Amino acid sequence: MGSMEGLFSGFQVAFSIEGILFVFLGVFIGTFIGMMPGLGPISAIAIMIPVTYSMDPALALVMMAGVYYGAVFGGSSSSILLNAPGISGTVATAFDGYPMAQQGKAGKALAIAAIASFTGGTISVILLMLFTPLLASVAVVFGPAEYFALMLMGLTAISSLSDGSTIKAMISAVLGFMAVTIGIDAQTGTQRFTFGNINLLEGIDFLVIALGLFALAEVCVLIFNRKDSSGGMSGNIGSLKLSREDVNEMKGPVTRQSFLGFLLGVLPGAGATIASFIAYVTEKRIAKRPEEFGKGSIKGLAAPEAANNAATGGAFVPLLSLGIPGSGTTAVLLGAFLVLGVQPGPLLVQDNPEVFWGIIASMYIGNVFLLVLNLPLIPYIAKVLKVPRPLLISLVIMFSLIGVYAISFNTFDLYILLLFGVAGFLMRIFSFPAAPFILAFILGGMMEQAMRQSLTISNGDWLVFVKSPISATLIGVALLSLIIPLLKKKPRLVADDKNLKL
Amino acid sequence: MILRPINRKLGLALFFFAGVYLFLSYQIPSYTYALVDADVVPKGLGFLLLILSILLFVQKKEETEQEKEKRTIPKKELYVLLGVAGFILIYIFLLEIVGFVIMTATFVFTCSSFLGYKKYKVSVLVAIIFSLLLYFLFNYLLLIHLPPGVLPF
Question: Which residue of A86, A103, A217, A456 sits 20 to 30 Å from the alpha carbon of A404, by its own alpha carbon?
Fold first, then answer.
């Protein structure tokens, strides 16, 4: 099936009444959850998984994709209105968005963010449509050794590129890999780390880990900040209209950063956070009046917004074409695919064209929804920020508990969820990033399987991983991405540093 | 004072954890004919964590102010956190006995009041509507059956 033909079939899924409804629901719920400070796309996707169990996989995944970019968009709104980024990918948005809101131009800032997000999102969908089948056609020749090398590269990239200490990120990844070794070994049937407990025979469900490490750990932070008033935002957000000069000023940064953001999104480990920071810094460097940045500059707001949305689209490329997530969020999304019985990878386009093209087509529609529906609705959606924190905390805890119970109907999993909530909180206070943990947990099982298959084929010869030029190159890149950050001092990405240097 | 920097304490704790994990990895039974057995990856991970914990212990990197700030939790807040954890434990224990609707409504009301929300009427209303809405959504629309407990429906 060619790209145009496939896209046409995808539009049939996305343009059906159910398709439009679920895209809208996904985008709306995503925006809603993404706006709540602390709750990002990972929590949003994880919370929504149980709702999709009995749904048609294509429609369910179309909705999940909507939740993902809706949450990224929602994060921008709370950055602008409250200076409280919902997710790390929208931290840079607050640098100029919040000063604009303080100057009484919140409406204008939201409109700029929406248009920049729409452009970034649309450009990235077009590139995603072109690149994914291309990469998938290359990946069909991959054997277990190449897959192992590719997953290793993805894992090391996220460990070395995430903010903060590289060693801590690596430890987090190793702990995630260790968590996946619990249960019955798929190849030999041996029990590992089950301590005779029958509840552990099937291992730990990824949703338990995702909700524990992210949603429950966020709840702890929300508990500490529960007395913060939702204030900061006045009732009046001002006009949403943009002048011709405003549009002219944002044109350049939006176009440039959409392409750059997409490329950074494709790279494993980079993602929306790094894309938005790099976009901000590059625009500041090339700007004629860099002193305006940090004081409400249109360029400073439009650039990271275009980049973070484009990166969201870019992150779908390795996920859909190789079946390998490049970030914590896409790892949870991969989990959602697997729960619904869809295996992303080189054969997705061939085996489930309605899912692949449905997601792509829904992104076009989802971007339009974000622009047309959310813009006038934002002042109303923003009222979610006024939900009293104690009530919000109780509801988020409940959503997490129900989400886990609905998969297993076993209270044992709820105790494990609480345990991972505590672990996630400890990781947070001791500055261990959680994304490498979840990524290793998702990739770990597949990596072990690929490694053992390769060694079985090669009759135990470990050189199998460097014999093929593709896997040798990928392992080389993985090693370099581990060694380089350990040798040189890494620049820190600090949220409140407006004179950011990379 | 050798353990003063927090990373040293963490390094040491992880070193012990890696030791226990390795010990358990060596207990995994192996098969003569399996080319790569079930214990290979766990052993590899155990040694990797051992090395990384040593690296964390010896690294000279100072903790940033931001990282230090994250760790400072007032004692009162810690008790609040433990209180919420206690509520969650009670909820899990009684969920299948008492039932979803009653337990969820009770949890939402009690937890929000405990966290300082004083508008009790709103709290009761939200708790009841939220638990009933979710119960009907899951049981009748999604066909995922949540425990009814003592309630007849």
Answer: A86
